[in-house]
Amino acid sequence: MSARGLVPEPESVDAAEGGFRLWAGTPLACPPELAGVAQWLRGALRLPLPVGAGGLDLRLDPGLGAEAYRLDGLTITGGSAAGVFYGCQTLRQLLPPQALRRAGPADWPLAAVRVRDRPAYGWRGVMLDVARHFMPVADVLRFVDLAAFHKLNVLHLHLTDDQGWRLEVPGWPRLTETGSWRTESMLGARQHATFDGRPHGGFYTTDDLREIVAYAEERHVRVVPEVDMPGHMQAAVAAYPQLGAGPQPVRTSWGISPHVLNLGEESLAFCRAVLDHLCDVFPSEVIGIGGDECPTEEWDDPDRQPWFTARMAEHLADRGRRVYGWDEILEGGAPAGAVVAAWRGAGPASVAARLGHPVVACPDIEVYLDYRQSDDPGEPTPVGTRLTLADVYAFTPVPEGLSEKERELVLGGQANVWTEHMDSARAVDYMTYPRLSAFAEAVWGRRSYEDFASRLPEHLARLDALGVNYRPLTGPRPWDARPDAPGNPRTWPDRLAELREMTRRLPSGGPV
């Protein structure tokens, strides 16, 4: 396996003389602060790696920078435990793909190389929507493993939406009894109004969520939870009609529901209870409140959302946390310190940074992995604009035209996996990989697609060993198609026109 096959590509890789052998008798030395990384590495390599000198050596050097690392033969030095962990992931990629499997001999040759590496951005995230289609805990943990393998460090977990509520909240049992399942689901894009006639549901217990958090922390992935409010709340209103304008079922169709929270005192108390529970379970400094796509037809005052967002921000501040919201929270003024997920193009990212808000760039026409991958009619449920592997690789988090101070507010980027049309982990694999591999390299900091494409076949061998149902580079296979779930392909000009209209209420106009 060539060192040139590494993804994301390190800052530098140099061959050295000699080589090594990793086997059951290889010793491992590390300070107590790296015991967790060492334990993870033993499991990942399927080797006992007894404590001792003369083999693998894990070290800390705070002068490197928190997520930077050096790999010199069998010595891995990181600026923190996270940096050492990334060095260990690079070590795994230097081994033959067989080393990534759970069966077979655990005895591998390793070429001697010197690697120097550090990421360009601190927020290298991926959002997983488990509201539209529920994903069991084991599949979420596998999703975390694959993200961590690519040195991504944030999992934004979209836990609720009109079509399903996926977490317990103490004192509100009907959220899971009623709000966690729907009678059927749409097949394909909503324009076709076709349904499958099958109930769909599921939710995470508090212990489930704590398991996900702990598992992710071991892999240096921060889990950022999101409960969308005050819109995208039809599932909650189905469970507790007094929170909205009256009884509604859990939504079965895709799209935006007009049935939102009524912003009365009970609704505010409900939202505070939800946020308290998220703060109790998730240690993340930022807590997602959504804030996007909220119709106001059910409200007497259509301009109340900024007031609501401010109240939720105040409550989170009392818990030592900050709001994380979609870029609609800029309309009417986002709370001080709010982190903005800029999804409607480069304009909202620029506006947020100029207003002094930390920004995570996630523009839909560049990093929404539910969007179709080609014009091939065999693509499953083709929706959105065409977003090829090369398009994703070309993503740059920082918009043009910002000052140096404003550029520093762009924390990084995030790819979003919306699951209306992904009803299984297999379908998520197909839509996510290898585009997420390209995204991971884009936010790590390397910038040559041609070089990435030349390394990708070696990386696909790793994905094969990890059992990933990625989209072949040659295009969809016959069984990937979904003729029962037709899509709605869009063009770039049409989508750009929509985004310009959608962002006209941003401060200073906010051009896309």
Automatic annotation (TrEMBL):
Residues 121-445 form the Glycoside hydrolase family 20 catalytic domain. It comes from the Bacteria. Pfam families: Glyco_hydro_20 (PF00728), Glyco_hydro_20b (PF02838). Gene3D superfamilies: Chitobiase/beta-hexosaminidase domain 2-like, Glycosidases. Keywords: Glycosidase, Hydrolase. One of its GO terms (molecular function) is beta-N-acetylhexosaminidase activity. It is an enzyme of class 3 (hydrolase). This is beta-N-acetylhexosaminidase. It comes from Paractinoplanes abujensis.
